[in-house]
Amino acid sequence: LQTLNEVDQEFMKMLLEPNLESIIDVATKQCRQVITVDTNALVISCFRFLEALLHPVDRNLRANERALQTELLQTAEGKLTVELRMKRVVIFALVWTFGAAVESESRLRLDTELRRIWPDAMPEAPPVPTTAKESKAMVGQVVDYSSKMEDNMLSVDRTWVPWSRMVEAFKMPESFRRIEELYVPTPHSVKYGWIVQAMVPGSHARGGMRGAGGVI
Prior knowledge:
The chain is 47% helix and 2% strand.
């Protein structure tokens, strides 16, 4: 994170140094991983993602964020605003690096640990499910939300927004040649597409052809 400005670096140290060890312990020892991932690789991925979120490629956006941050840090209330936004950036990065490698059932453990550490920065906790079907339908873990990082991360109205609200309405094309040309956006396609773009800033990511109906 040496590419970040001094203020961002201080916030990162304040948030991560006392908490990263317990988060790593939960993610690697208490959660069941889909595949075994080296802890060092997870830490590196997390820091690279943080850098991408905090260091946008767009120079104008970066300059605007720096100016707004400087203005907010002039008051005690503004400092709390910046700290809350930083917490959400860190939480988002942790969930999509350490949390991305674990089984969906284990994500709740990581989510619970993050709520213990930063309760003021987390989305509203989901109700306790009474059935397996209810559990799958629940929205409330960080993985279910976007923090709208593509906007100015320090904006006053920053909040967690369910990915489902960011799905554009599907419009049937007037004509198409093959069924795989149809693309129906879903919460999954929106969030995974956004994550890929954020992790590969300023570059082009290549993938295979979409499946029928929009499977990516």
